[in-house]
């Protein structure tokens, strides 16, 4: 580990501390001053419940930093993991891992366990008991003799980490959740609680922090889940204590320019995604075409293969190809998997009075490759008798406000509507061609009325009756066609993090929320933004609350929305689970407000 005789060597320092922070801003100032003066680069995350730090620099500077931190009472008992390392050989990896600058940020919590933003985190005082590396090893060593106890190993890391190294013992079952991100772990625990109930659970992760909250979550389940233990200091401390690897086989994936740290045992656990040969080198940063998660592709296959790289999770959920353009593995800063927090997570910013972190580090969140920043991808559904082009124009201010965190994708609905016009009273017989452009853009709809037997074409038709503000109540047909169309959009243009709908588009988006999971993960998304929406009842979806994080935006009683009344949009909001929904009301009409203070509220959600 650390060579304290060579102060000019480069090094990496990792540590975390769960404790109530009395003055968050004061601690921010300390880290900014201390790290800057010592020339340390990396990530510092400070939350009301503690601190998580990963910084690099000269060994002498890192040791000075440790001594100064130790002088602060908050850090009593902190485990400082200091390692000497060679200078990075790849500037790209250094940049991707966040070691080109110092980033000190305030976050809501050190790790994000739940994907639903308002889900309550488990009580950290109920975390699993710490086992030292020696104690952890001893339990595994004696496992064959403990016939009266069921012992299971639980890996709390992401699947791209477990590919290249994990604990193995022939007498102990190892549970690998195979998750993309840490916030997927609670769902896995819920689904596999029968394997954990009544067992002695030994948890481990890279450095220990992810096990803290995850072990508390398991223990919160009550009777039968009390015996949960966690490896103190994580795999890193274990390999220091057992340099030959002990029961850990392969390499420990780390979130800095070292990429992975192994033991004296040269054996390789990972394998090439293409040919299956032994391989565990992530340095070339090959990625799944669909979800952008890191994948292992050996040097030979990188040179000879022109196939799309599809990770095991995308294969499992049927994202294996189907018309996608072949591409080689290259770093794409705007499409890397799941580094941004959930859109709705930011909605509690005002209640907490804490600016939340947009670029959390992986050991803080456990999310796949979150040393990269990726924009949220949001599919936008226009209103009735609109199209993608004019909806894009109407939301340009919103897109500009969100440009640093979100990419808006616009598509036309599948139902083409005829052109209609109201003739002027003084010119009842005048041809529409004389007054209306023959080049008018087509208009579309997601839902249509049952009597929509009109022919589709470019001819203008005289409106049969004056505009009816309640016409949306008759637009109840055409869902299956729109659903099938959007399924192809998700397949060809996805994945999408969320769906934004306006008016009828919001009604369609709500129906998508109601049938999430109907097509497995083909149309999977994490949240919905519904603007001036209304409910459309389709019997096959049942009457239960819709369990999808949602943001509802509509005019209040003073908003004077002449098309969708406030109580109608409110009815739609009431169809969603209140524990994961947020409402923003404005004083304007049938629009998405794009001025202060509403635009600021929306962009913070």
Automatic annotation (TrEMBL):
Pfam families: FSH1, Rhodanese_C, UPF0176_N
Annotated ranges, domain Rhodanese: 147-247
InterPro entries cross-referenced by the UniProt entry: AB_hydrolase_fold (IPR029058), FSH-like_dom (IPR005645), Rhodanese-like_dom (IPR001763), Rhodanese-like_dom_sf (IPR036873), Rhodanese_C (IPR022111), TrhO (IPR020936), TRHO_N (IPR040503)
Gene3D superfamilies, sorted: 3.30.70.100, alpha/beta hydrolase, Rhodanese-like domain
CDD domains recorded: RHOD_YceA
PANTHER family to which the protein is assigned, alphabetical: THIOSULFATE SULFURTRANSFERASE/RHODANESE-LIKE DOMAIN-CONTAINING PROTEIN 2, THIOSULFATE SULFURTRANSFERASE_RHODANESE-LIKE DOMAIN-CONTAINING PROTEIN 2
Protein name: Rhodanese-like domain-containing protein 6
Organism: Acorus gramineus
């Amino acid at each position: 580990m650390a060579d304290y005789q060579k102060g000019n060597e480069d090094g990496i320092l990792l540590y975390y501390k769960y404790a109530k922070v009395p003055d968050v801003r004061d601690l921010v100032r300390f880290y900014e001053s201390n790290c800057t003066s010592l020339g340390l680069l990396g990530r510092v995350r400070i939350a009301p419940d503690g601190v998580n730090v990963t910084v690099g620099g000269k060994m002498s500077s890192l040791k000075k930093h440790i001594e100064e931190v130790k002088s602060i009472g908050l850090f009593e008992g902190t485990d400082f993991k200091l390692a000497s390392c060679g200078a990075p050989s790849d500037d790209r990896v250094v940049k991707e891992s966040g070691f080109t600058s110092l980033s000190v940020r305030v976050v809501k919590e050190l790790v994000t366990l739940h994907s639903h933003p308002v889900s309550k985190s488990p009580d950290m005082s109920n975390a699993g008991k710490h086992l030292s590396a020696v104690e952890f090893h001893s339990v595994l060593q004696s496992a064959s003799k403990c016939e009266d106890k069921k012992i299971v190993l639980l890996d709390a890391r992401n699947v791209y980490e477990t590919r290249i190294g994990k604990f193995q013992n022939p007498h102990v079952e190892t549970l690998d959740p195979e998750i993309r991100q840490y916030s997927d772990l609670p769902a896995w625990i819920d689904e596999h609680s029968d394997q954990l109930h009544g067992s002695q659970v030994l948890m481990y992760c890279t450095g220990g922090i992810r096990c803290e909250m995850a072990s508390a979550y398991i223990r919160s389940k009550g009777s039968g889940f009390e015996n949960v233990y966690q490896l103190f200091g994580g795999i890193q401390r274990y390999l220091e204590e057992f340099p030959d690897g002990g029961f850990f086989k392969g390499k420990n994936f780390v979130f800095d320019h070292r990429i992975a740290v192994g033991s004296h045992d040269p054996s390789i656990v990972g394998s090439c995604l293409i040919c299956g040969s032994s391989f565990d080198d992530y340095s070339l940063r090959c990625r799944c075409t669909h979800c952008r998660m890191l994948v292992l592709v050996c040097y030979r296959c990188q040179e000879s293969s022109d196939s799309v790289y599809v990770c095991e999770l995308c294969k499992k959920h049927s994202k294996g190809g189907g018309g996608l353009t072949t591409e080689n593995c290259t770093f794409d800063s705007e499409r890397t998997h799941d580094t941004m927090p959930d859109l709705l997570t930011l909605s509690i910013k005002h209640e907490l009075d804490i600016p939340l972190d947009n670029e959390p580090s992986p050991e803080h969140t456990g999310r796949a490759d979150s040393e990269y920043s990726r924009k949220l991808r949001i599919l936008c559904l226009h209103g009735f008798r609109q199209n993608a082009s004019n909806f894009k124009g109407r939301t340009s201010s919103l897109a500009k406000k969100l440009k640093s965190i979100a990419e808006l994708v616009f598509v036309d609905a599948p139902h083409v509507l005829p052109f209609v016009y109201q003739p002027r009273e003084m010119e009842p017989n005048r041809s529409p061609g004389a007054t209306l452009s023959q080049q008018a853009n087509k208009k579309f709809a997601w839902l249509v009325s049952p009597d929509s037997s009109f022919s589709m074409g470019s001819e203008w038709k005289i409106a049969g009756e004056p505009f009816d503000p309640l016409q949306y109540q008759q637009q109840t047909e055409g869902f299956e066609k729109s659903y099938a169309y959007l399924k192809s959009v998700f397949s060809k243009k996805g994945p999408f993090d969320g769906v934004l709908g306006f008016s009828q588009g919001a009604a369609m988006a709500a129906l998508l929320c109601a049938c999430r999971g109907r097509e497995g993960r083909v149309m999977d998304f994490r949240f919905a933004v519904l603007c001036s929406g209304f409910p459309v009842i389709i019997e096959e979806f049942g009457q239960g609350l819709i369990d999808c994080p949602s943001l509802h935006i509509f005019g209040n009683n003073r908003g004077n929305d002449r098309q969708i009344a406030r109580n109608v949009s409110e009815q739609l909001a009431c169809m969603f689970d209140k524990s994961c929904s947020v409402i923003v009301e404005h004083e304007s009409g049938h629009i998405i407000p794009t001025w202060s203070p509403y635009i600021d509220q929306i962009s913070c959600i």
